[in-house]
Structure formats: structure tokens, C-alpha cells
Amino acid sequence: MFASVLTAAIRGMEVTPIEVEADVSDGLPSFIMVGYAASQVKEAQDRVRTALRNTGIYLPPKRITVNLAPADIRKESSGFDLPVAIAILAAAGMIEEKYLHGGMFMGELSLSGEVQAISGVLARVIRARELGCSYCVIPEGNLREASLVKDITVLGVSDLREAMDFIRDPELYAHERHHYEQEEVHKEPDLDFSEIYGQEGAKRAAEIAVAGFHNLLFIGPPGVGKTMIAKRIPTIMPPLTFEESLELTKIYSIAGLLTEGDPLIRIRPFRSPHHTSTAQSLAGGGRIPHPGEITLAHRGVLFLDEIAEFSRHTLEIMRQPLEEKMICISRASGSYAFPADFMLVASTNPCPCGYYPNMEKCKCTQAEVHHYLGKISRPLLDRIDLCADIPETSYEDLQDKAAQETSEEIRKRVVAARELQRKRYEGYGILCNSELHGKQMDEFCVLSPEASKLIKSAFERMQLSMRSYHRVLRVSRTIADLDHSDRIECEHLAEALSYRGLDRKYWA
Ligand SMILES: [Zn+2]
Questions:
Q1: Distance 468 CA to ligand 1 centre (A)
Q2: Which end of the chain has a smaller Cβ tally under 10 Å, C or N?
Q3: Are 380 and 318 in contact (CB under 8 A)?
């Protein structure tokens, strides 16, 4: 007899429906699995057979063939165990096949027959709904995550026996369907800008960067709080919409990084890969690639602490995603695209010892300083709109216990500035000032007459390149937005220029 069960394979961010076909026929007893399966899927043979036996189900001594179709897609992950088991049971006549129509199955089996949680359930359930399935049978451990998808019945099963009982008599379980209503427990982030004393300049730079979604580089000696400030940047970003939350949850589900208690990602990500990270871990690795750090930072912050210590090759990986807000990875099995719309925040010491240009403390030679910052390549630097100098904190700053602004107060200004941008760029296909380019610059970055004069003299005095000039304009536009000004005035421009002065100080 023959039976087939629907499941799905995840390739990058794409979910491909897979038919698990099983045939049980007379012949020498055997179990064959075909259909371009990776080793972990092939092992399903042993897991399924043992799980069935330990559940008290004995397969007839016949010839069992399982095929995963289409055969040209390589199947990874152990999520095929449950559909394979169900297909065999149906082909052996132990489950009526008519009950399998309109369902999608996924789950890993333990040898005792328990159905274990797998990664990527949310993405598969979303795909099942798109395919018009009426129900999904999934591991109970993934139930909360799957329940985020509306308009489809999701049944979490804890073992093989429960899965069979459900299929044999769906009505039996109809009244028991768990429903996890979305809990609106608003978890306040633990970090807050009010914990940082002094460093007003750096905080201001962070606010501007977030308001216009600009990339940001902090330069300063060690121990001045570059990391502290960077970590708090997500707390001043606009709150996630539900769609963004779901999109992020899908990514984290595929990466297998969801927490069981409250799977929905409600806070913008902050990812901080170590400088020894490989290019692969940033971009996404594996034969069938998994989301890398830059994808896990989607809609949030990717923080590269001590950016000059990263290998050049690793940093080069960043160029495409910074430009296109996604990353493409090519493999023999095809090419995979991952979203990567993040805000890059980087920090660096100005020199190997960290104290340049304070010549009393800095022990480095001019060549060493030059070589150190030279590791940050020009093309990468060109994608960073703001460079903020973080000076050493003075004793007075630390004593200044006056009430510091909270993240919430800063966020209000950011949200207002973003709203102005959203309205202004409606129909232009962009959302933020950082995306302005070409003719849009002339249209939207209108300078007051005094500001025009200032930019002209700065252009000559600071020997700005065309790229730097555009970056200054984009940042001025954001500063003007924070000030609710239609036109870019002198003070907006002057402040924007101050974030470029560093170029000359360090990279002259
Ligand atoms: Zn030094």
C-alpha cells in the first residue's frame, strides 16, 4: 500500500513543501529511504523503527520504501521523523489515509517514541497556512511558537501514540486544543540610557543615528563606555510592530534560538559578535546556510566592538548587506537570501594602546596609529554616516548625579523624527534619511542660504569627497528632523560636519 504525508524543508529562509511517500509491499523485509536526504534524515530509519517498537507498534515484516519528494532538494534536520513514521503507518494500513489530507506534519522522534521540539516550526506553519492546509501536527514543545500563526489549527503532540490517536479521531482532541493567547506582558528592557553619566556627545550621536537609521562609529580610549552606550541603543529605537516581531521570530525560529516561555521576539535584537568571529558566522554558515549574526541583528543593532581587530575578510562580508539590506550566500545546492536590515554600530580604540591623540599617554608611533585604523577599510568607512569621538570621562562627569534622560524620553524624539521621514518619503520606496541617494538629496536636503555658504566653505576647507558630502547632508537632514525643521539650517549642518571632522583627525 502507498501513502503520502506533507511536511516541509527549510532552505535558508525559504520553506519548501516536501511529500513523504511510503510504500509497504510484499517482499524481503527491508527499510529503504531515498530522496536526497542528509545523514541526519537517513538516520530517521533507525529512529522511526525503534520509536514505533517502543510505542508498542509492530510493523509487518514487509518491504518498506520511503521517498522524500521532490528529490532534487537536499533535506536536512531531524524534523522529518514524525512525517516518515505517519506515512509508514498509513501505508501499512494502521492509520486511515483520508485523515492525512490537508495536514502538515513535523517533529523529531526519540527512541522511546516521544516527539521532540525542532527549530523552524513557525516558518513551516506559516507556509502550511499559505498552502491552504487546515491543520498542522507539531511537537508539543513548539506549541507556543506555532500558536502565533492565526487561522490554522495547530496540534502539539508529545508522543507518537498521541499523534496517532489524533489522526484516528480528530474530534477527540477538538475540545482539548490549547490556545495560547498572545500575552501582552510588556517586558521592560533592563538597560536604560539614564544609567550613563556624562558622555552627552556620544548619547547625542546615538540619538541622531537611530533617528535616521545611520550607521555609527565610536572612537575613543578604552573604558569610556563605548560598549555601555551601544548596548542601550535598541532601547531608543522605535518599538517593533507585530509584523516585525513575527518576522524576527521566524528568523530566530529557523536559527533554533527561541525561548520556550515567550517565543515572540518583542525587543529589537542587539548582536555583538566577538572580533575573532569568522566571516561565516557573521554571514551565515553551513552546507544549507543558517542565519548568521547579521541576519540575527535584522531590524536591530549589530555591534562590532573593537572593529579594527576583526579580520579584513570578515569585515568585507558586511559590504553587500550594508548596501542591499540582505545577504546572498551561494552554495553548490543553490543560493540563499537572508534579510539583514540592521544598524551597524562599531567602536574602536584610536590606536593600539588606545590613547591617541593624547600624546602624554599614547606610546604608539605615527605608523602604528595609521596601520591600526587602516584596518577599517575605506569602503566600509564610507557606509558609516556618523563618527563620534568619545573622550575620557572627567571626574566631574561621574559626580554629576543630576537626573539623566531616560531611554523612553529619547525614544519619543526618535519616533517623532521617524514619523516625519515616513510621511516625507511615502511613495519613494525609502523609510529613513540614511537611504537618501542621488536626486532625492537635492529634493529633500534643502539648505538655508547660510547653510549653503557653510557647506561650500567646509567642502573646500575639509576637502570632503563627494561621498562624505552626501553623508553630511543625510545626517544634517536627520538633525533637522529631530529639530522639526523643514529646512537644514546652519546649526544642523555644523553639527553634522562635526561627525566628519574625525575622518581627518584619524584617517588623514
Ligand atoms: Zn597609542
A1: 26
A2: C
A3: yes
Check if the beta carbon of residue 149 is closer than 8 Å to that of residue 129: yes
pLDDT value of position 103: 92
Expressed in angstroms and rounded, the spacing between residue 205 Cα and the centre of ligand 1 is 24
- How far apart CA 150 and CA 125 sit, in angstroms, is 10
- Kindly provide the b/e burial profile for residues 415-447, where b requires at least 16 CB atoms within 10 angstroms of the residue's own CB: eebbebbeebbeeeebebbbbbeeebeeebbeb
The model's pLDDT over 40-56, given as tens digits with 9 standing for 90+, comes to: 777 888 889 899 999 99
Do the beta carbons of residue 291 and residue 251 sit within 8 Å? yes
Distance 223 CA to ligand 1 centre (A): 14
Is pLDDT at 13 greater than 70 in this prediction?
A: yes
Say yes or no to pLDDT of 376 above 60. Answer: yes
Q: Is the pTM of this model over 0.85?
A: yes
pLDDT, residue 402, reads 67
Q: Which residues pair with 348 in a beta bridge?
A: 219
Share of the chain above pLDDT 90, in %: 51
343-348 and 386-389 strand pairing = unpaired
For 468-479, what is each residue's pLDDT tens digit?
Answer: 889 999 999 999
Burial bucket for residue 183 (CB in 10 Å: 0-12, 13-18, 19+): exposed
360 CA from centroid of ligand 1 (Å): 10
CA 355–ligand 1 middle distance (angstroms): 5
The Å distance, Cα 371 to ligand 1 centre, comes to 11
Torsion angle, alpha carbons of 210, 233, 382, 296, to 10: -110
User: What are the φ and ψ backbone dihedral angles of 349, each rounded to 5 degrees?
Assistant: -75, 150
Counting every residue written for the chain, the total comes to: 508
Cα of 381 from ligand 1 centre, angstroms: 21
Question: What structural domains does the chain harbor?
Answer: 2-174 (3.30.230.10), 193-408 (3.40.50.300), 436-508 (1.10.8)
Distance (angstroms) between ligand 1 centre and the Cα of 367 equals: 11
Distance 227 CA to ligand 1 centre (A): 20
362 CA from centroid of ligand 1 (Å): 4
Instruction: Quote the ligand 1 centre to 507 CA distance (angstroms).
Output: 15
| Cα(8)–Cα(131) distance, integer angstroms | 11
CA of 499 from ligand 1 middle (Å) equals 22
Interatomic CA distance for residues 475 and 483, integer angstroms: 12
Distance between CA atoms of residues 89 and 166, nearest Å: 14
Distance from the alpha carbon of residue 408 to the mean position of ligand 1, in angstroms: 37
Residues lining ligand 1 (ion), CB within 5 A?
351, 353, 356, 362, 364
Q: Would the pLDDT of 177 be above 90? A: no
Q: How far is the CA of 357 from the centre of ligand 1 (A)?
A: 8
